[in-house]
Amino acid sequence: MSSMSWTSFITDFEHFLRLERGLSVNTISNYKYDIKRLVTFLEKSNTKLVSPIDITEATIQEFVYKISKELKSRTQARIISGLRIFFDYLIFENYRDTNPVDQIESPRLGLKLPDTLSVKDIDTIISVIDLNYQFRGVNLGHRNKAIVECLYSCGLRVSELTGLKISDLFFDEGFIKVSGKGNKERFVPIGKNTQYLINIWLDIRKHIDIAQESKDILFLNYKGNKLTRAMIFTIIKKLVNKSGLQKTISPHTFRHSFATHLLENGADLRAIQLMLGHESITTTEIYTHIDKSQLNKVINTFHPRK
């Protein structure tokens, strides 16, 4: 039996996810957070904090019962999945022979359709951007407009946007190189209008005192440092509030809208999959949701008995 602490196991698991599985920092953080939630439960329970080597299915069931009272089904399912992967790792490393999560059922999840914006909604959000907005002498209005256009016209995840490099821009060819989940790279088309807005920002960017580690990063804050995920969320939230739209909108909403609008206008699902960087086309298929008016339009246009 190992004398390793939970912290040691979690640290080794983190290294495994990063080096062997090639997962992103955000995904690894979610796994660690879920395991630490289990540790907190064990610490607060009346029983002694047991090693992950000795933990039983009964204990996992107690933990799942507790979180079922506190969390939404989707969050519960993610935690159970994360714990199952953690204990599979312990088996892989010969710390355990069985996985105490194998027989634990995840809650049933209904199909969650992504929120989308209409083209009019997106135009409304872009229209409220103040192109003269400056902070500490740096014009950030043009940067913010380029960010929104990039999210929508390229369908990027937030982490992909913040990590986008100047050396990833291939405007002559009409593409950008995107580093997605697991550091998997893909090339995504970029339109002339978005290129134009990025070029305006690049001219402004030249006058910023840029931190050495951010020299190649495209979107920066006024201090010359890489933008955080939280800052992108803040930018979008302020624009949505200013626009007056009564919708829950995040940076990811622009990615959903990108895929939905392409599909509604006749784009091939496989092409959308490649642009989004989905490993499986079943993930992309969620965008095949179409409202009733669109279905009626399809029938009236294409069916011989319309």
How do the strands and helices of this protein lay out in sequence?
Layout: H1 6-19, H2 25-44, H3 57-68, H4 73-92, H5 119-127, E1 134-135, E2 138-139, H6 141-154, H7 158-162, E3 169-170, E4 175-179, E5 185-189, H8 192-205, H9 229-243, H10 251-264, H11 269-276, H12 281-284, H13 292-302
Antiparallel strand pairs: 1-2, 3-4, 4-5
Helix pairs in contact: 1-2, 2-4, 5-9, 6-8, 6-10
Describe, in short, the structure shown:
Residues 4-91 form the Core-binding (CB) domain. 52% of the residues lie in helices and 5% in strands.
Element pattern in H and E: HHHHHEEHHEEEHHHHHH
User: In DSSP terms, counting alpha (H) and pi (I) runs of 4 or more, how many helices?
Assistant: 13
Shape: globular
- Whole-number tally of structural domains: 2
Helix content: 40-55%
Low confidence ranges: none
Structural class: mainly alpha
Please tell me how large the radius of gyration is.
23 Å
Arithmetic mean pLDDT? 86
> What is the CATH architecture assignment of the largest domain?
Orthogonal Bundle
CATH topology of the largest domain: hpI Integrase, Chain A
Termini Cα gap = 71 Å
CATH class of the largest domain: Mainly Alpha
Strand content: 5-15%
Brief descriptors of the model:
306 residues; mainly alpha; DNA polymerase, domain 1; hpI Integrase, Chain A; 2 domains; 52% helix
